[in-house]
Write a structure and sequence with these properties.
Number of strands: 8
Distance between the termini: 31 Å
CATH topology of the largest domain: Rossmann fold
CATH superfamily of the largest domain: P-loop containing nucleotide triphosphate hydrolases
CATH architecture of the largest domain: 3-Layer(aba) Sandwich
DNA sequence: CGAGATTCATGTGAAGTATACCTTTAGGCTTAA
DNA sequence: AAGCCTAAAGGTATACTTCACATGAATCTCGTA
């Protein structure tokens, strides 16, 4: 056994890698220069530049669809800004926070707590009054003279969940600060998001607005080519594959991130197969693998009750019921609950859980009225049937049932 | 036959509750002068 | 007397429950042609 494994490792090491520098395709990689986003880079740089003269930059609001380079551009600029500030000895602090991360920054309290943690002070996960948290944050920020740029990524998710009070407080905090100044950079995938905002917040948050249009297929192809040259060895990825991949991504509203991930995973798959180059088949497989990983990952991190609800739905789907309704799900769910000794939640809560699973893209849900026969959700799985066995066993394992 | 009322099953918002955790405070115990 | 530990008191955020009202089209009702 041991021999077999060590042999495997030897073989693994002997195997030619297709990559030169896989890092380049990783999501958090920031290239030295950014293609097809010159305009936005200039605009944002211009807006944030006053911070180097110790003046408060305007608040910025950035929109654009997923994978249109918003986060990348902002990180790129802030990195450089920080470098320059350090050279010039300007006291500048930049905090980046992704509001979507569940259980990290998805409520007012947790967001503020996370910010304070970024300053290196520990804060309990619950128990403190929220205004106490604000005070702590305020004191830390104001404790020395500095400029603070706060980047709130996926800010729409946060506001959807707990309103715009946080933003109001954050925009107002400047009036109180003696030593420091705070600028906000909001990033949102939702283009109409600001329209539902309190007008006061809206006006102060979007002093400047920048829109990231989606990339078209050619642009994605450019970006991809550049990264592929750096990431892969020569002649491993052919132009045709890049074009296909770009086309895939352009189809999905120009999501460059997806295109990069696709090539990376395709490369990994090709390498695993000891194939000398990446071909179109690898792309197809990569697409499936990414989807599978995404789903498996979201399911794994779901609380037990959500998993059980999903389990019930899958079981019903397998009994080839073509339409699944909320009430039916609840019945089956309760059955499974009593079987595995879990205390069942109310239907109200299950209704919310189903909505959550819809948000994660695991279910497709439509609210329909069936006239005389009431109003309900029509539920279907957004998972490819071929993945089901794996997911079922995953669920059974974590639910400890069969 | 058709307009309006009715109905059903659940969506959905608001308010209340349970739980887990926090800080503060008062009391009891120990210790050192 | 001062210092330290413990436990109770009083407070909070979050996940969930309870209550109550909203929805919206199939179906029913009833006046009318």
């Amino acid at each position: 056994m041991a021999k077999k494994i060590s042999k495997f490792f030897e073989k693994f090491l002997a195997r030619d890698t297709l990559f030169k520098d896989k890092q380049v395709l990783q999501m958090n990689y920031i290239p030295d220069d950014i293609t097809h986003r010159d305009e936005q880079v200039d605009q944002i740089a211009e807006i944030l530049a006053p911070s180097l003269k110790k003046q408060k930059p305007s608040n910025v609001f950035i929109y654009g669809k997923v994978g249109s380079g918003k986060t990348l551009v902002v990180k790129y600029i802030t990195n450089q800004l920080l470098d320059t500030a350090n050279k010039l000895n300007v006291p500048l602090k930049i905090l980046y926070i992704n509001c979507k991360l569940k259980r990290v920054a998805d409520t007012e309290y947790r967001l503020m707590a996370q910010l304070i943690r970024d300053f290196g002070k520990d804060i309990p996960t619950t128990g403190l009054p929220t205004d106490e948290i604000y005070k702590t944050f305020f004191n830390i920020v104001d404790s020395k003279k500095q400029l603070l740029i706060l980047i709130l990524d996926e800010i729409d998710q946060l506001v959807k969940k707990c309103g715009d009070g946080i933003l109001y407080n954050l925009t107002r905090i400047n009036e109180e600060l003696k030593n420091s100044q705070l600028s906000l950079v909001g990033i949102s995938n939702d283009l109409v998001f600001v329209d539902n905002l309190d007008p006061r917040v809206k006006s102060s948050l979007s002093e400047e607005e920048i829109i990231f249009p989606p990339y078209n297929a050619l642009q994605i192809q450019d970006i991809l080519s550049q990264r592929v040259i750096k990431a892969f060895k020569e002649d491993v990825v052919h132009q045709g594959v890049i074009a296909k991949c770009a086309a895939y991504a352009a189809r999905e509203h120009g999501d460059a991130r997806r295109a990069l991930e696709l090539t990376r995973v395709a490369g990994e798959l090709a390498e695993r197969e000891s194939s000398p180059s990446v071909n179109i088949e690898h792309l197809d497989k990569a697409e499936q693998k990414i989807e599978k990983d995404r789903i498996v990952d979201t399911i794994k991190t779901q609380p037990l009750q959500c998993q059980l609800v999903l389990y019930a739905i899958i079981k019903m789907y397998l009994k080839k019921k073509d339409v699944i309704l909320t009430g039916e799900v609840y019945d089956i769910y309760k059955e499974h609950c009593s079987r595995s000794g879990l205390r069942p939640l109310t239907q109200r809560r299950i209704s919310d859980i189903i909505a959550e699973l819809d948000m994660f893209g695991i279910l497709n849900v439509k609210v329909i009225s069936k006239g005389r026969y009431g109003r309900t959700r029509e539920i279907s799985l957004a998972i490819q049937p071929s993945m089901l066995p794996k997911i079922i066993s995953l669920l059974e394992q974590s639910l400890n049932v069969s």
